[in-house]
Write a structure and sequence with these properties.
rod-shaped; 124 residues; disordered N terminus; mainly alpha; 10% strand; 3-stranded antiparallel beta sheet; 5 helices
Length: 124
């Protein structure tokens, strides 16, 4: 259903940043392990760092080629996010469930209002 992209990939990149819990990994190794392009993994790593889930240390300088090479380590927030919150995929499923529930409540309220109007109209 989900394929191997987006939310599951983000979770797998975070998991790939700590193969032995505490021992860092390089972005290129994660890319090879997941069989994805290095530039995609580098982009995801930068996004995950901005969320505080991983910490990055640049192996290549700023003037070097793009994508930059990183030494990656998972943060405590990243471990908690994966182990207890279920990762990005579970977070997405919860948001989707909340959206469906809100839509259902709105539809029920509209049907209720229409039913009240019809009862009032036909009771006269």
């Amino acid at each position: 259903m989900w394929g191997e992209l987006d939310y599951p990939l983000s979770d797998r990149v975070v998991r790939g940043s700590f193969p032995n819990r505490g021992v860092g990994n390089e972005g290129k190794e994660i890319s090879t392990e997941l069989k994805k392009d290095v530039s995609l993994i580098s982009y995801l790593l930068e996004e995950l760092e901005s969320d505080g889930l991983v910490s990055l240390e640049a192996v290549s300088g700023t003037g070097d080629k793009i994508p930059r090479a990183y030494q990656v380590e998972i943060t405590n927030k990243g471990i908690f996010f994966l182990d207890y919150d279920g990762g990005h995929l579970d977070l997405y499923k919860e948001q989707r469930k909340e959206t469906i529930w809100k839509t259902t409540k709105i539809i029920a309220a509209v049907f209720n209002a229409v039913a009240i109007l019809l009862i009032g109209y036909y009771s006269l």
